[in-house]
Amino acid sequence: MRSCIERLRRSLLPAAALMLLCGPAAWAENPSPPTTSTQAAPAPKLDAPVAVNEASPPAAEEMAQGDPGGSKTGTVNDIAVSDSKKGLTLGDALNQIGQNKVAINFVWTLVAGFLVMFMQAGFATVETGLCRAKNANHTMMMNFMVYGFGLFAYWVCGFALQMGGVGGVANLGGTAPLSSEFSLHAAGKGWGLFGTHGFFLTQGGTYDVAVMVLFLFQMVFMDTASTIVTGAAAERWKFAAFAISSVFLAAITYPLFANWAWGGGWLSQLGANFGLGHGYCDFAGSGVVHAVGGLTALAVAMTIGPRLGKYNRNGSSNAIPGHDLVLVLAGCFILAFGWFGFNPGSTLGASGNGNLRIGSIAVNTMLAGCTGSFGALLYMWIRYGKPDASMSGNGLLAGLVAITAPSGFVNTVGAAIIGLIAGVLVCLSVEFFDRVAKVDDPVGAISVHGINGLWGVVSAGLFADGTSNYGGSWNGVSGSVRGLFYGDPGQLIAQLIGVVTLLGFVFTLSFVFNLFVDFVVGQRVSAESELEGLDIPEMGALGYPEFALKAYREKLPLSGVGKAAQA
Amino acid sequence: MRALGLLMAVFGWLIPVAALTWTDSSAVRLTLCLVGMAMCLAGILGFLNGAYLKQAIWKR
Q1: Which of A62, A78, A174, A504 could form an SS bridge with A58, CB 3.0 to 4.6 Å?
Q2: Complex ipTM tops 0.90
Q3: Considering the entire predicted model, what is its pTM?
Q4: Which residues of chain B make contact with A492, given a CB cutoff of 8 A?
Q5: Nearest Cβ partner of A437 from B17, B34, B45?
Q6: Domains of chain A listed by start with CATH number
Q7: Residue partners of A181: CB distance under 8 A and separation at least 6
Q8: Number of domains, chain B
Q9: DSSP symbols for A144-159
Q10: pLDDT band at residue A48 using 50, 70 and 90 as cut-offs
């Protein structure tokens, strides 16, 4: 019985496919005798007028009555016509189909970018909540202004260096102007280093609709990396040093590594050039965004040194609790929400090229965040006897960071395992940096983004299950990405080379530049400013005037509500 | 100490990258990646951070 059905299906499928192909021709021209499976259908003329009435569009009088059910709006009448004298042609209809696909992808990518942009609010609230009230204005302002500093630098040169040679992005209709990559040639291979089209979004013909969409999406990713650093250096970073450091990260450090991973650079070509799987695969940026931000945060935190009072003379550390856990956990939720733009949005489209995997990517994202918070919560509960709120939040973020690179390549079981490991790893890492390395990180940014960013890159090389298919190839290598557990050790090696590049190149570049900033303007505020809190010395206004009234009595200048409270 | 730490980090990166052109063996490449990672971490957290800890603000 089953074989009968199978035979019937095999014989009917080609006939059905032929009917679908012939359908438009029959609709476009006068009715002709139906073709059989042995006859070839004549190729339809694309410029031949289409009989619009056969599509039965509603009459104008009918439309004037309104369309409460929505069944009459959006018909053949809405297709743009290239030649009004000739009327609608099959070519017009096909062009409309193509434009619809690109339009869907534009809207998808833009909305995803808007979600990622909103993550800035999440970072701002998480970091400010984890800092003391006396530094609230300063911490908030760093998170606020990093958006502007980063955006400006990225517009001037960052985007060009990163994506100037990426070539065509099929989902966005081509991005043809981004076609110039500077490469070195060594050992018979090309080593792409940076792009050279797109400075100021005009140079090299980049005043282009698809380039603008790509710019917006890539910019908010870069800004995420920039804002990570402000958390690790909070409560002691000079605002001027922060501004210079952020501009450098957005203009040079981030774009270089992002070019190597996403812009057609040498890391992405490890598969095509050296047979290492599909080259370095970082779907949405565990390495490109989070590890770059986290390792730069480590470089800055080491340069600046710990906050006063963090360590005792014998080297033991003191906990310096943040001032608002409510703000912290609300910020974590905002970030988790924004991550639905981060990961599924990284397909750069919802239509065509296997992009319907966005559902799977979104579920992987929420699962890893969930198991990440479980991992951290259980670790803290077992080790310290209480379910710690801030570490549960960091566990959620760690799971999300870790799943960012593999989200497009793994199944839900892999995602849950990756998140769970990330949740435990973030606790171990926070303890290591706090007690062993003695690097003061007020918000845990190095552990959440740096360490779990690296884990995310490695996990893609382990758990990628070979079922994804984004247009048949990835990084110029046909087939889908498989990790070590699914039979491709080469993919794990490519991922490890990415990890070593992050540690050896990105960290070193960030460290050397921040050392230079330290030499020129000084990275750290004075001890007096730090003890007083940075709001007045650095920013000139208090984040919470009423809090200061309570803490400082009447010694600080008050305005607005603070003055009223004093009265 | 700081310069040594930075040099170790850079060499830790260059070794597995350069090895791409020396060998096609997955085992060798994997081993060199792990060696490179260990060198980077030792350079950053051992030597570089160690240099900063020697003059740490809380020791003064």
Answers
A1: A62
A2: yes
A3: 0.89
A4: 30
A5: B45
A6: 99-520 (1.10.3430.10), 534-566 (no CATH)
A7: A164, A165, A166, A192, A193, A194, A195, A196, A259, A263, A264, A265
A8: 1
A9: HHHHHHHHHHIIIIIH
A10: confident
